[in-house]
Amino acid sequence: MSLSDDSSITLLRTLSTSFYCNSISSMDADTFIVSTYDHERPVRTIDLQGNMGEVQHKLLPDKEYGLFYSACTYISSSNTLVFSDMDQDTVYMCDVASGEGHVIKSDKIVSPRGACAGPAGTVFVCSGATGTLVQLSQDGEILMTHDIDMESPYAVSLNRDCTRQVVSNSQEGQNIIKLFKL
Prior knowledge:
By secondary structure, the chain is an all-beta fold. It contains no helices and 17 strands. The two termini are about 30 Å apart.
């Protein structure tokens, strides 16, 4: 997809996959990392030519997730995969090169959903059941919990210069998007 100066969108290519995707994040100019559902591998890669690959990890459970029960993002500055497991109230942070990383479990992270890269190598994770955003360090330590006055935050993203953050939810009948200044 290409976005022009006048905000029109142009389809560049359609890729067929052998798996369903819960979330997708850019790894580099040609490769994406996706969380899957109803597939034996929870995370896969796909490039612009349609080649599918594996992500080496030593932390993620090799299990099939249902629709909306996992999400991932990729932090290019630290070569880190961030993967949320809603059923296990767990966030995994894996170095893609070594497969090593951190398993984060806390009463502050309940039903984790979407995640995104934050400033200075931090990560924001939606904690769906607590209605908060949890900010993690590169080492998986909880730095701060942000009460955003929203039920079931589901997806989070920052603009390129990390000055604005947008959060959406998945609460039926209360679907909202909030924009925050950082």
